[in-house]
Fold this sequence. Notes:
Elements: H1 4-45, H2 47-61, H3 63-128
Helix pairs in contact: 1-2
Amino acid sequence: MATPSSSIGKKGKSSRENTAKTMVSDQISQAVVSTSNLLHLMHQSSPSQARLTKLPKNLLAKASTIKNTGQVLEQMPSVISNFDAHMENGLQSVPHLKTISQLLEKMESCQLRSLSKAELYSEEPEQTREPPKASE
């Protein structure tokens, strides 16, 4: 049979557990309400917060662009290397280009000289010709 003192002990222990559970539950509820209020205040006080909530959606929309940019950036070292090699070849060709331009200038001056000589020869016979005689 249960003695009155043992039932009182169980009731006391049980009520302390309930009180502890109630206190923990109240503290959790207060923390949730405080967090909710804080978030609500942040949304009200910061207009940029609305933009921040849209950010993940914008990032998802631009995922393919971001992926393509990543691929381009991966290829950039080889592109730069190839470009550098072409520039180096071009710089090595500069002396040849100077020689070619000098040859072209000489050819042009020779052609101009021969043209001017031909013009002089074609004008000279006209000047040395006697004017036609009047009919007698």
